[in-house]
């Protein structure tokens, strides 16, 4: 696999949480080369929680060139329509408007600093967006809900597969932007 470049800028727009019955998914913005990528534009308390940080960063919805969804749960997809018709990347395809193009996510390079990895674990269809920034290799992923895990994801169909994918991502990433909590630096206590 080609080494990941380290030129991207990453901004977390919304830090996700689970405080039942309230749930929000982490929403991130990645900019590299000519691409402006929103990852997991899902459930939030108010859509302006996504749009206001974009405005503060000087990014309009029509500037977005790609959307990536880590998997197809609503808490990660609900607000895809905030953005114009652009390629939406998932585990098996690129969807643009009514055009469906089948392709596996594994190894897809959106830019030299943005790569998609197939990382089934939370669901069989999960992907991780790997981002090379000047300071870190960042994994935007649902392999962890928060820094604490959970160690046994209640949605996972295959605990061994989850563990294998977590190990794979930990071999690559120095920072994890998880699905429902603050970004964290992996360490010995990180659930495997």
Any overview of this molecule?
There is one protein chain. With 192 residues, this protein is an alpha+beta fold. 14% of the residues lie in helices and 30% in strands. The protein has 3 helices and 14 strands. It has helices at residues 48-56, 74-77, 159-172, and strands spanning 9-14, 17-19, 22-24, 27-32, 35-39, 66-68, 88-89, 93-96, 99-102, 109-111, 114-118, 127-132, 137-140, 175-177. Strands 1-4-5-6-7-8-9 form a 7-stranded mixed β-sheet. Strands 10-11-12-13-14 form a 5-stranded mixed β-sheet, with no helix packed on it. A hairpin with a 2-residue loop joins strand 10 and strand 11 (114-118). The chain is globular, with a radius of gyration of 15 Å.
Q: Note the beta-strand portion.
A: 25-35%
Instruction: Catalogue the unreliable spans.
Output: none
**Helical content band:** 10-25%
SSE succession:
EEEEEHEHEEEEEEEHE
- Backbone CA Rg: 15 Å
Strand count, sense and closure of the main sheet? 7 strands, mixed
Which descriptor suits the 3D outline?
A: globular
State the helix count: 3
Please report the distance between the alpha carbons of the first and last residues. 24 Å
In which order are the strands of the major sheet placed? 1-4-5-6-7-8-9
Structural class call reads alpha+beta
Mean pLDDT: 96
The total of beta strands comes to 14
């Amino acid at each position: 696999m080609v080494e990941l470049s380290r030129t991207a800028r990453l901004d977390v727009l919304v830090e996700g949480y689970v405080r039942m019955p309230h749930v929000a998914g982490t929403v991130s913005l990645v900019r590299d080369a000519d691409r402006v990528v929103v990852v997991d534009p899902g459930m939030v308390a108010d859509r302006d929680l996504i749009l206001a940080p974009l405005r503060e960063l000087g990014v309009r919805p029509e500037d977005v060139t790609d959307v990536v969804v880590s998997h197809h749960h609503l808490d990660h997809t609900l607000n895809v329509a905030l953005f114009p018709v652009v390629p939406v990347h998932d585990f098996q395809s690129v969807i643009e408007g009514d055009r469906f193009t089948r392709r596996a996510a594994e190894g897809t390079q959106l830019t030299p600093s943005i790569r998609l990895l197939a990382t089934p674990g939370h669901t069989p269809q999960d992907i991780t967006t790997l981002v090379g920034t000047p300071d870190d290799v960042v994994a935007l992923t649902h392999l962890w809900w928060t820094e604490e895990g959970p160690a046994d994801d209640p949605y996972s169909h295959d605990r061994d597969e989850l563990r294998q994918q977590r190990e794979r991502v930990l071999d690559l990433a120095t920072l994890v932007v998880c699905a429902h909590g603050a970004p964290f630096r992996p360490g010995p206590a990180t659930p495997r």
